């Protein structure tokens, strides 16, 4: 069961039961004054059956009708808890649907008695498999022959990875009438298309209930429904986000991790697990095949799938490749615009505006990427130098013109834009820099004279914006994406939300307006993220090669940069992920960074930066005596990049080792000491501390 957070109780608690309960049984047990959900984790050691100490309390109820959670599932939870330094109960509970916690035994029995949806209502019209391209066929053959184990599918954007997933799943399910598949995607609401495809493909075969979704956008009853269907074996396919890695799938045969490089597979609170890494672990534990797919694999997975070479046995994953686009289309031609050669303060180069205008006139769509929402990141006074700082965070509040607000994107603090400078009264306060709102506005001005083709009804250019602001309301994102797919939009402006996975058919030009920021970040993973973001967004252009040819058009990716000589752009121009990866791995090896070393972050939040750092420094000294300490480097405590959020000071300490085992051992022994430290004088003023194993953001 879930014990109170940070109580330091990491192990299961012991209860009395009238008869032996098999491990994995779901029960209700008393905890303090409450009755909570629990999972029987195993039999208590005889001495725990308490000669001394408190009298054991009995189990309150057994959730009848639910088969016990499998040993494989419990092992997964045990491993995740140990590896990510959390309590077993916390991880187990996080892996179960929230509503299961609230239901009593009777309520659950009633819920289980409810009939599943009839197999007849198969939902939308079916979707027939396509004849695989030669590359798809080769990959499917390797998967068929490959058996259990992990595979990395490196497939270009538009190479038809989705079709490979669909057919690999179909083969598994057809081979065994009970087999189940788990398909994970980074953010399901970004790809409503995909869910529809799976339902259309498998609904007619196995009934409407055969495909269930699992993600945080669902209501609690929906999540319980999906979980039960999977646990009881009624669902054959679970399609979900990172949380789905904990789905109870008694007959799991295949796990697919789409866009395996995506940072959203890493949970950023509570147990900070990587769903991708757990998927690989789970596949190995359960003898299931694991298929990781991406056009730009994470460097960890790329390195992990290297072929054997002399003296090197190679990686643990088998690498599969689909370099070509379906329909023999080309990847977009990459054009770098040297912003040093543009007139000062140019935001959109004349060449780019012209290229967009031409495409609008031909009835093609363009897409502009700017990874910053709002109108302008800062509002400033030209007289006294006042800037729109957030009073609670070490960050500026962003100017949103639409509702004339200044909003902090870190703590949410929002105010109306002041009429005059709050510091000196000057009326002339101005936005500095630019976000998607402003880009949309400027674009409308620059393209004001452009007409759409008469054949399509003519009229002025239609610009749309997709970002976290424009899609705040339920269903809004799906509606806006549908508009783009229908061709009701000529130019789409947006943040990285528009870069991912969408199979847009009429986009022929993609532009990254200002990607330079990530080139010089202090986070060693920033170039990797930038490269994949650019590759991914470029991949939205020219996906329908037949239509493109009929248009007499070419797909292009434009990049505005002040650093056109940067090697990252060189590799991007050639669509050469392997070259980029090789260069990055070289640097990582030289600097002993992952995947050549293993990291964890110890973080402390406190009222003052001194307290936070002091706690970390003391924590570091506290493990000096451990035998592993020599093999695990602990760097000095430093403030986070955004050091203060909502009046809380944040500091972190990087912990690194070339030995994963040494790092894990040290962390395990550190845990109880950190709890003790928190209670002591060094813990004064500490609000919370946490450990992030294999951190993605440094
Ligand atoms: N064998 C095939 N025959 C015809 N069309 C196909 C085939 N396989 C895939 N397609 C089509 O090709 C397009 C691209 O496929 P898909 O979206 O799966 O690419 P992807 O590899 O997932 O790309 P990305 O990484 O950019 O998301 C889709 O419209 C898909 O329907
Ligand atoms: Zn703030």
TrEMBL record:
Cofactor binding note: Binds 2 zinc ions per subunit.
Q: Which InterPro entries match?
A: DEAD/DEAH_box_helicase_dom (IPR011545), Helicase_ATP-bd (IPR014001), Helicase_C-like (IPR001650), P-loop_NTPase (IPR027417), PriA (IPR005259), PriA_3primeBD (IPR041222), PriA_3primeBD_sf (IPR042115), PriA_C (IPR041236)
Q: Please, which domain of life does this record's source organism belong to?
A: Bacteria
Q: Name one Pfam family in it.
A: PriA_3primeBD
Which cofactors go with this protein? Zn(2+)
Q: What class of enzyme is it?
A: isomerase
EC annotation?
Answer: 5.6.2.4
Which positions fall inside the Helicase ATP-binding domain? 142-302
GO MF term set: 3'-5' DNA helicase activity; ATP binding; ATP hydrolysis activity; DNA binding; zinc ion binding
Residues recorded as binding Zn(2+) 2, renumbered to this chain, are 390, 393, 408, 411
Which residues does the record give as Zn(2+) 1 binding sites? 381, 384, 421, 424
Catalyzed reactions per annotation: Couples ATP hydrolysis with the unwinding of duplex DNA by translocating in the 3'-5' direction; ATP + H2O = ADP + phosphate + H(+)
Per the record, its GO cellular-component terms are:
primosome complex
The alphabetized UniProt keywords are: ATP-binding, DNA replication, DNA-binding, Helicase, Hydrolase, Isomerase, Metal-binding, Nucleotide-binding, Primosome, Zinc
One Gene Ontology BP term is: double-strand break repair
In residue numbers, the region (Disordered) covers: 114-133
Under SMART domains, the record lists: DEXDc, HELICc
Give the matching Gene3D superfamilies: P-loop containing nucleotide triphosphate hydrolases, PriA, 3(prime) DNA-binding domain
Family assignment from sequence similarity: Belongs to the helicase family. PriA subfamily.
Role description: Initiates the restart of stalled replication forks, which reloads the replicative helicase on sites other than the origin of replication. Recognizes and binds to abandoned replication forks and remodels them to uncover a helicase loading site. Promotes assembly of the primosome at these replication forks.
Complexes and interactors: Component of the replication restart primosome.
Enumerate the PANTHER family for this protein.
PRIMOSOMAL PROTEIN N
Q: What is this protein called?
A: Replication restart protein PriA
Organism equals Pseudacidovorax intermedius
Gene name for this UniProt entry: priA
């Amino acid at each position: 069961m879930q014990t109170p957070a940070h109580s330091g109780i990491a192990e299961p608690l012991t209860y009395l039961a009238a008869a032996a309960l098999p491990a994995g049984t779901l029960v209700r047990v008393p905890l303090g004054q409450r009755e909570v959900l629990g999972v029987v984790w195993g039999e208590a050691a005889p001495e725990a059956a308490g000669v001394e100490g408190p009298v054991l309390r009995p189990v309150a109820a057994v959730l009848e009708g639910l088969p016990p959670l499998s040993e494989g599932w419990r092992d997964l939870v045990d491993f995740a808890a140990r590896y990510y330094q959390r309590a077993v109960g916390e991880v187990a509970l996080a892996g179960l649907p929230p509503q299961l916690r609230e239901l009593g035994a009777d309520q659950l029995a009633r819920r289980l008695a409810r009939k599943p949806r009839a197999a007849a209502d198969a939902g939308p019209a079916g979707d027939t498999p396509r004849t695989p391209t030669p590359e798809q066929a080769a990959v499917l053959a390797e998967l068929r022959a490959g058996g259990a184990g992990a595979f990395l599918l490196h497939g270009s954007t538009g190479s038809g990875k989705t079709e490979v997933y669909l057919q690999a799943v179909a083969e598994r399910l057809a081979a065994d009438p009970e087999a189940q598949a788990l398909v994970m995607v980074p953010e399901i609401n970004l790809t409503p298309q995909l869910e529809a495809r799976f339902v259309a493909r498998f609904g007619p075969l196995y009934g409407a209930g055969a495909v269930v979704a699992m993600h945080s956008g669902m209501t609690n009853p929906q999540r319980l429904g999906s979980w039960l269907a999977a646990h009881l074996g009624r669902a054959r396919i679970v399609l979900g986000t990172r949380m789905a890695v904990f789905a109870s799938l008694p007959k799991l045969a295949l796990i697919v991790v789409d866009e395996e490089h995506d940072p959203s597979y890493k949970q950023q609170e509570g147990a900070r697990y990587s769903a991708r890494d757990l998927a690989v672990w789970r596949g190995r534990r359960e003898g299931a095949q694991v298929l990781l797919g991406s056009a730009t694999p994470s460097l960890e997975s790329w390195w992990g799938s290297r072929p054997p070479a002399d003296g090197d046995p190679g990686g643990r994953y088998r690498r599969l490749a689909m370099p070509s686009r379906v329909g023999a289309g080309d990847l977009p031609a990459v054009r770098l615009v040297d912003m040093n050669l543009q007139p000062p303060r140019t935001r959109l180069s004349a060449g780019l505006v012209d290229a967009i205008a031409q495409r609008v006139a031909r009835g093609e769509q363009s897409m502009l990427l700017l990874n910053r929402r709002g109108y302008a990141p800062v509002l400033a006074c030209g007289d006294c130098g006042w800037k729109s700082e957030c009073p609670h965070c070490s960050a500026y509040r962003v100017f949103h013109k639409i509702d004339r607000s200044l909003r902090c994107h870190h703590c949410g603090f929002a105010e109306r834009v002041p009429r005059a400078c709050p510091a000196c009264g000057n009326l002339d306060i101005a936005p500095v820099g630019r976000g998607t709102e402003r880009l949309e506005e400027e674009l409308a001005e620059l393209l004001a004279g452009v007409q759409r083709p008469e054949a399509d009804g003519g009229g002025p250019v239609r610009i749309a914006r997709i970002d976290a602001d424009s899609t705040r309301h339920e269903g809004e994102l799906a509606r806006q994406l549908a508009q783009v797919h229908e061709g009701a939009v000529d130019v789409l402006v947006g943040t990285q939300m528009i870069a991912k996975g969408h199979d847009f058919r009429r986009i022929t030009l993609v532009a990254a307006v200002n990607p330079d920021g990530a080139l010089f970040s202090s986070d060693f993973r920033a170039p990797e993220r930038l490269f994949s973001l650019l590759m991914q967004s470029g991949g939205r252009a020219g996906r329908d090669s037949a239509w493109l040819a009929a248009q007499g058009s070419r797909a292009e990716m434009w990049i505005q940069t002040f650093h056109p000589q940067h090697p990252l752009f060189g590799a991007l121009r050639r669509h050469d992920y392997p070259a980029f990866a090789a260069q990055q791995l070289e640097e990582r090896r030289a600097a002993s960074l992952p995947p050549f070393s293993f990291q964890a972050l110890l973080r402390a939040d406190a009222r003052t930066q001194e307290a936070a750092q002091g706690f970390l420094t003391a924590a570091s000294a506290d493990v000096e005596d451990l035998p592993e300490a020599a093999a695990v480097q602990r760097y000095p405590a430093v403030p986070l990049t955004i050091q203060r959020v909502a009046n809380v000071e944040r500091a972190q300490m990087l912990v690194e080792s070339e030995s994963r085992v040494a790092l894990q051992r040290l962390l395990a022994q550190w845990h109880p000491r950190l709890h003790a430290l928190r209670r002591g004088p060094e813990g004064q003023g500490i609000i919370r501390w946490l450990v992030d194993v294999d951190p993605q953001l440094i």
